[in-house]
């Protein structure tokens, strides 16, 4: 019996999952682009980030990151604030409106995934949960020690 190509199956499942998540987001008319949503998400999980740090995370030049921030600031989703430890540093802080937007999108994505999961038998859902947890643990175990700080 031929062994299934697990990597190909995971890739296909990831594409299907991205499609489910994208459709949940696209049903809501947003004033922000996917890149701007990514910026807000990155900044939410990294509160100490400045424009140069954001540029590194996005792999763009600082001027491009700054223009992205200008647009987000103009629509009320981002604030630039002085770092209390070093007033020369400016931190990028998502606003309450940005937090609400990200929360709404997260809820929509979770609901879209729940709809798909409800079509699966409970036993298969539990198997999937265990497999995803093991996959996540294997990823963390394979990261170099300094990489885990960057991806957190």
UniProtKB/TrEMBL annotation:
Name any one Pfam family assigned in the record: MarR
Q: Which domain of life is it from?
A: Bacteria
**Domain called HTH marR-type: residue spans:** 3-137
Please name the PROSITE patterns in this protein's record. Answer: HTH_MARR_1, HTH_MARR_2
Kindly state which keywords UniProt assigns to this record, in alphabetical order.
DNA-binding, Transcription, Transcription regulation
Biological process terms in GO annotation: response to stress
Q: Which SMART domains match?
A: HTH_ARSR, HTH_MARR
From the UniProt annotation, give the residues forming the signal peptide.
none
List the molecular function annotations (GO) for this entry: DNA binding; DNA-binding transcription factor activity
Which protein, by its recorded name, is this? Transcriptional regulator
What is the organism field in this record? Answer: Micromonospora craterilacus
The lineage is: Bacteria, Bacillati, Actinomycetota, Actinomycetes, Micromonosporales
């Amino acid at each position: 019996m031929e062994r299934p190509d697990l990597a190909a199956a995971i890739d296909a499942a990831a594409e299907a999952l991205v499609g489910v998540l994208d459709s949940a987001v696209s049903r809501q008319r947003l004033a922000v682009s996917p890149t701007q949503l990514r910026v807000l998400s990155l900044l939410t999980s990294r509160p100490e980030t400045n424009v140069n740090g954001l540029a590194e995370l996005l792999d763009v030049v600082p001027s491009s990151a700054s223009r992205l921030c200008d647009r987000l600031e103009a629509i009320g989703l981002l604030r630039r604030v002085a770092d209390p430890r070093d007033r020369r540093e400016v931190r990028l802080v998502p606003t309450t409106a940005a937090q609400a937007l990200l929360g709404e999108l997260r809820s929509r994505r979770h609901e879209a995934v729940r709809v798909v999961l409800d079509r699966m038998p409970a036993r298969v859902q539990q198997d999937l949960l265990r497999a995803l947890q093991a996959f996540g643990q294997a990823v963390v175990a394979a990261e170099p020690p300094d990489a885990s700080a960057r991806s957190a």
